[in-house]
Design goal:
The chain is of the alpha/beta class. 27% of the residues lie in helices and 31% in strands. It is built from three helices and nine strands; from the N terminus they run αββββββαβαββ. The two termini are 20 Å apart.
Length: 152
């Protein structure tokens, strides 16, 4: 039910193959996982190259929805390329998704899982702060693996 409602809300009836119930996203050694001991309903959306298939459009890799709480995770699995680009990818995906869902930014969290996280990356911090200032969208960065525990 949750999957179908999200497909409809995003106007993606012709892209149902982009949606599944997985709690994990992996790519080139990076991993994002929802630890789901509470057995909530999860919907994972492959965004990059599926939901948004226009190569000119910046977009993140995945969107996860915890259906019972209306919590959304915008996930970018990043190699050695620019972390500030990852913020832009998450921000643009947030715009695309929320243009359709019309939810408060408090329901969203951006997560970048990077190969490595430099201690002082001023360009990244500036873009991250601007995203929060302009959209109230929080974006966090983790190295290699990110596990979010779903609360009961």
């Amino acid at each position: 039910m949750c999957r179908e409602a999200l497909i409809t809300a995003l106007g993606a009836d012709d892209k149902a193959e982009c949606f599944d119930n997985s709690t994990t996203a992996k790519e080139k050694g990076k991993e994002f996982r929802l630890e789901n001991k509470s057995k909530k309903t999860i919907c994972r959306v492959k965004v990059d190259g599926c939901l948004i298939d226009d190569k000119r459009t910046k977009r993140c890799d995945y969107l996860f929805r915890i259906c019972e709480t209306e919590k959304y995770f915008l996930v970018e699995l990043k190699g050695n390329s620019s972390l500030s680009d990852a913020v832009i990818q998450i921000s643009r995906t947030f715009d695309f998704i929320n243009e359709r869902l019309k939810l408060s930014p408090q329901y969203f969290e951006g997560v970048i899982v990077a190969s490595k996280v430099p201690r002082a990356n001023l360009k990244f911090r500036k873009v991250q702060e601007k995203c929060y200032r302009d959209k109230k969208l929080k974006i966090h960065i983790e190295s290699q693996k990110c596990i979010r525990h779903i609360k009961f």
